[in-house]
Amino acid sequence: MSLLKDFLSKKPLFYEDIDYDTMPKAWNSIKEKIRPFKIIHIVGTNGKGSTGRFLAQILKQNGNYVGHYTSPHIFNFNERFWLDGKVVSDKKLELAHKKLQDILNDELIKRVSYFEYATLLSVILFCECDYFICEAGMGGELDATNVFDKQLSIFTPIGLDHTAVLGDTLEQICETKFNAIQEKTEVLLNNEMNKKCVKIGFKIANKKQANINFAKDILNQTDMDSINLYSRKFNLPNFLRSNLTLACSGAKQLLGFLDISKLDKLNMSGRCEKIANNIYIDVGHNELGAIQMVDFFKDRKINLIYNSFLDKDFDSILKTLKPILKYVFIYEYESSDRELGGEKLKTALNKLNISNSVFDKENLKNIFDDKNNIYLVFGSFLLVESFLKELQTRAN
């Protein structure tokens, strides 16, 4: 049996065609061997990672053994698996890999995708947990994570993203995601959910006889006071405060009470994270993420360090960001599976009259000494990973 890293290296990160029969077959072959656990399904476009991690931290700090599965990762594959307060070790991952290889037949081992295999690993890793917080990938109804029975489904804001797979309109994407709702279960919505999405969500939930509420419907004034206190303590941007509120409603739904008096700072990288006095990184990478950045920086002008995959709607993203942009540096990096924006990105910037140039990595360290400008590294997990690795290399 090959080591996990070698095994995954043979599976592409992105697939043009997905066999939606594979994951149910794989899950059916192992579920009888797994101890039942309480699964909380996190679905949406933006905010899944931070909402799930806030919820995991709250549940843990109230005495529960918690696993949180998220994707993608920035540096290491291990980052996808948070268990009882920390990222799992290489040793635990290898043991889970061995167990999974022993359970699945050769045909399923060959057929499961990178994401499907990671999802199955999370089941092995978290099988002893009181709560398993499971973040959907880009989908909902047909997502690999939707094979599990859920105790609670939590929906973060939904917007246009992955249109080639999920649908060309917001309505189509909403239907795909909300169809992940399980019959006769509990459902919670972020308070900031788009009105069109809300209408579709309630329609599908009612059809499935699921009990659907906004986060605010679960929380009382005392709860909101504690959320406000925490938000001020850690200077949360509005979007992270909204995600915390959703996580708190989930915790109260599960525990019957809310106590975040001992809640630590969000233990997750890349969410409007300040890595220096003048430098922020964010993995938002879509229009919803851009809206959140405009809200956070408001009247301040920033230098954007950015790139985008060619299949992303970077025109809309740049139009949204334009009010806060002083200059855009196009950050070039290696991407073997998907093509970057290239000349089309430069053309889009020029059409919007946004000053731009290719980022010179030789001057990477200089931006830390630039006290007159704010820099935002904004884009995919791969872009943020490349930037941070380049930074580490030049610092050493």
Automatic annotation (TrEMBL):
Keywords carried by this UniProt record: ATP-binding, Ligase, Magnesium, Metal-binding, Nucleotide-binding
Pfam families per UniProt: Mur_ligase_M
Entry GO CC: cytoplasm
Membrane spanning residue stretches: none
Protein's UniProt keywords contain Magnesium: yes
Protein's UniProt keywords contain Magnesium: yes
Molecular function terms, GO-annotated: ATP binding; dihydrofolate synthase activity; metal ion binding; tetrahydrofolylpolyglutamate synthase activity
InterPro entries tied to this protein: Folylpolyglutamate_synth (IPR001645), Mur-like_cat_sf (IPR036565), Mur_ligase_C_dom_sf (IPR036615), Mur_ligase_cen (IPR013221)
Chain ranges of the Mur ligase central domain: 43-217
Family note: Belongs to the folylpolyglutamate synthase family.
Protein's recorded name: Bifunctional folylpolyglutamate synthase/dihydrofolate synthase
